[in-house]
Design goal:
single chain, mainly alpha, 70% helix, 28 helices, 476 residues
């Protein structure tokens, strides 16, 4: 390897004095590098000195009010990452209690940072979420009073406006121990019994609008109840108390298929299959309630646990016939004897080809996968294609273009027609691309059958949309 390659061995060969000169040189004009070098020098003195400097930096970041634009965004993230690394990698091994306190202060910094930076990409939030996970490692090694820590956790959760302390109970379960968890439980239960209060800075109009949209007609009460339930469930989970976890759900909650499924799975894990099944059968499955898929999985698991395999199979087939959920069909086929599964699979595909929702059927064949059936579905029912569903049709066309170009063309045409017939100019660029895709595969299609050839389709498109020049200018 060349001695000019930038690697550790070659740089070490330069010698300490030369490297020091180079570091001073490259740090000129770079606040980030200077800050990192100072932290490394502090760590060389000892973790206590490094902790003092990190604490100063956290205070400085908290006090800053200037908006961080996109140019300085990367620098901010690097600065935050550096502080976390100093806390978790350099201070924690020797001074875990000090590191715990610094990490807590770092997480408390999140709201002030969020308020002055656009985090639509989520990378700033990722820094804080990743940092919070380190509590699970540092906490058990720190010398902390469980009762005082429980109070600290509870104060943080009541002022958790940006969700920066989400999941903290589970992360600190081992650190809190039984005493800490019980004290925290007492604080939460006492809070839940007190009447809700609006914050003093809430405007009356804002309070009215919140109350209007809340489930109970009182936003403050709903918010208090949600926080209470969430915390008590996290405590119950940390203590391994399934009954206490489930007890936080009201009868109304248990009517929801997704919650009923969650509870049923918990009961199943405790060997209570009959109770789990009753929970599921008591849920409200009418309408388009969220969580049907989870409900199905839990229901089938209950039937299998009760050795009612035939009923489980019947339910799988029935629900597949209604939803075309490929997972249900896969599980159904696994139980069948050899050769029976082949016949059942063909029966399922025939059902999908005639399914009422063409686009759901298309998704099924793409997922299965069976591109031959997907192409047949498109060619037989092309008039049902909805060109507005580009998020389905575009990837489907790409999957089909090599082996089934005619089917791909029909999908592209559906999206082109939708864009031009509706005058949706924002989609003209995509429509032009789709038309060029049609031209690109034209030579691969020997027979268009009952469909117009590419040239005939383009001529008809010209005749109908000749004046849409902004579209035609995009076609090469």
């Amino acid at each position: 390897m060349s001695k000019k390659t930038l690697n550790k061995d070659n740089l070490t060969a330069l010698g300490a004095e030369r490297l020091a000169d180079l570091l001073l040189e490259v740090s000129t004009g770079s606040a980030d590098i200077k800050r990192r070098l100072r932290l490394e020098l502090s760590h060389n003195v000892g973790p206590t000195e490094l902790a003092r400097d990190v604490r100063k930096r956290l205070v400085s970041l908290r006090k800053s009010t200037s908006f961080v634009g996109w140019r300085k965004r990367k620098s901010l993230i690097k600065d935050l990452d550096t502080q976390v690394d100093m806390i978790t990698d350099k201070i924690a091994p020797e001074e875990p209690t000090e590191a715990f306190d610094l990490l807590w202060q770092f997480i408390e910094l999140a709201p002030s940072v969020y308020e002055r930076v656009d985090d639509s990409r989520g990378d700033v939030g990722d820094v804080f979420r990743s940092a919070a996970l380190r509590f699970e490692d540092i906490g058990p090694r720190a010398v902390l009073d469980p009762t005082a820590l429980a109070s600290r956790v509870w104060d943080a959760l009541r002022d958790n406006g940006y969700g920066e302390f989400d999941g903290i109970i589970g992360l600190l379960a081992q650190t809190l121990g039984e005493d800490g968890l019980e004290h925290l439980k007492g604080l939460v239960e006492a809070y839940g019994k007190r009447p809700a209060e609006e914050t003093s800075d809430d405007h009356e109009a804002l309070i009215f609008l919140r109350d209007l949209r809340s489930d109970s007609g009182n936003y403050a009460t709903d918010r208090k109840d949600r926080l209470t339930k969430m915390c008590l469930q996290e405590i119950a989970e940390a203590q391994g108390d399934t009954a206490a976890y489930i007890a936080q759900y009201s009868e109304r909650d248990l009517q929801r298929p997704d919650i009923a499924a969650e509870v049923a799975q918990l009961l199943l894990s405790q060997g209570q299959a009959d109770e789990a099944l009753k929970t599921l059968t008591d849920a409200d499955l009418s309408g388009r309630a969220f969580g049907h898929r989870e409900w199905d999985a839990a229901y089938i698991a209950c039937l299998i646990a009760l050795d009612r395999v035939d009923e489980a199979q019947s339910h799988r087939w029935e629900r597949f016939s209604e939803t075309l959920n490929p997972d249900l069909l896969r599980d159904y086929l696994k139980v069948l004897p050899d050769f029976d599964d082949i016949e059942a699979e063909e029966r399922a595909k025939a059902k999908a080809l005639d399914f009422g929702d063409l686009h759901l059927a298309l998704l099924f064949f793409l997922d299965w996968p069976d591109l031959s059936c997907a192409a047949r579905l498109i060619e037989n029912r092309s008039e049902e294609l909805d060109g507005d569903l580009y998020h389905i049709l575009t990837p489907a066309a790409e999957a089909l273009r090599e082996r089934y170009p005619l089917a791909a063309v029909l999908l592209w045409r559906a999206m082109i027609d939708y864009s031009l017939n509706g005058g949706r100019s924002t989609r003209y660029g995509h429509a032009a691309d789709h038309l060029m895709d049609c031209a690109a595969v034209d030579d691969e299609i020997s027979d268009y059958g009952s469909f117009a050839s590419h040239l005939s389709y383009v001529d008809a498109l010209h005749a109908r949309h000749e004046r849409k020049t902004s579209f035609w200018h995009r076609v090469h």
